[in-house]
Amino acid sequence: MDDTKILLSENELPEAWYNIIPRLPNPPAPPLNPQTKEPVKPEDLEPIFPKSLIEQEMSPEPWVEIPGAVREIYKLWRPTPLQRARNLEKALGTPARIYFKNESVSPPGSHKPNTAVAQAYYNKEAGIKRLATETGAGQWGSALSFACKLFGLECTVYMVKVSFEQKPFRKSLMHIWGAEVFPSPTNRTQAGRKILEENPDSTGSLGIAISEAVEDAATHEDTNYALGSVLNHVLLHQTVIGLETQKQLALAGEKPDILIGCVGGGSNFAGFTFPFIGDIIEGKLEAEVIAVEPTSCPTLTKGIYTYDFGDTAGLTPLLLMHTLGHSFEPPAIHAGGLRYHGDAPLVCQLVKDGYIKPRAYPQNPCFEAAVLFAQTEGIIPAPETSHAIKAAVDEALKCKETGEEKVIVFGFSGHGHFDLAAYDAYLEGKLEDYEYPEEKIKEALEALAHFPKFPTGL
Questions:
Q1: Of 55, 198, 348, 441, which is the most exposed, with the fewest CB atoms less than 10 Å away?
Q2: In a domain, 182, yes or no
Q3: Does the pTM of the predicted model rise above 0.85?
């Protein structure tokens, strides 16, 4: 096929989300109650989540039907294009064929509304009036603000302070869609006040912002918590990305040899790759799956696989994941969506089982790849997305050396229209690379010595 864009009609929009849990070689480890160290009961989660999402969290069903109201809203931007990066291929001189799944065409500019719309729908159905959440770079916060406005819900966003200051127009977008936005840590919650007492100059982290949002939800009866990544139901909703990509590659007459996505918490990566990984597990596909993270927050590449809190204050259940320790506070890199101390348990399990290969890059080489992409394909990538592009470029250059005509497909998780200050810093030579010191990682991990390790047999 010679088309640059492989498109699907709205009638081809997936009717169900793809659940990888029943397809895993081993069942996922349950979240644990931090007090009893026993598996969390569904009723333990009801103060912050609707029952429908709790059921999806550990659903044994291979497919979960997408509600009609959610599918109708999806049609505002879905199905998204699968695009052939022909100009990038020419610039690299590679025989590889490079495709990217373009999630930047959604109203908030990223993959995040795939789950934001679903979560807002289920909370509205449960009679909830307000959702509280955190956001790093602002992609998730803007997506949930958008979804809440569509379903008539109020929205409160705790935005990591450094991103709040670096990305003012993300804040503007949230305000346009009616959300209230606060730089985290704040004085609004006990968790925030404690952090500020210990470090008045804290630039914040996703772990801190999660603590504030969870506390807000747990202390207000009409409010629930919404999470943009990590949890199973969030990854489930994102699988519309991979399902569409499979159909589009089939139309193009292609099978992927390499699948690439950036990873912070894991939602865009999982949504893009899980349908393919399911095929790999079942022996229907042979492909390499690469998860890319920043060297400043090397969770999959340098973290340990153990139970840990998903937040800084220790308000969440314990999750089995690769982690740098919930007290870890990463440096203020521009890829704010990748600055999280842990990763989605399902992604981590697949890394441990060998189905996913993690890799880490500093931010300057990623911005270099992003600028090349913008100059050849015309779209300015989000700093998070630049990590996937860097890996795709590296793999394409390997093909140039070997002469292999591999099919490389990566997830283009969002545009960088609100990140131009970061590009200015890069172009002016003011962007610093940061590899988090081994001794600081070790220090953060020592606090986890008493936490349960993964169960025997996993």
A1: 198
A2: no
A3: yes
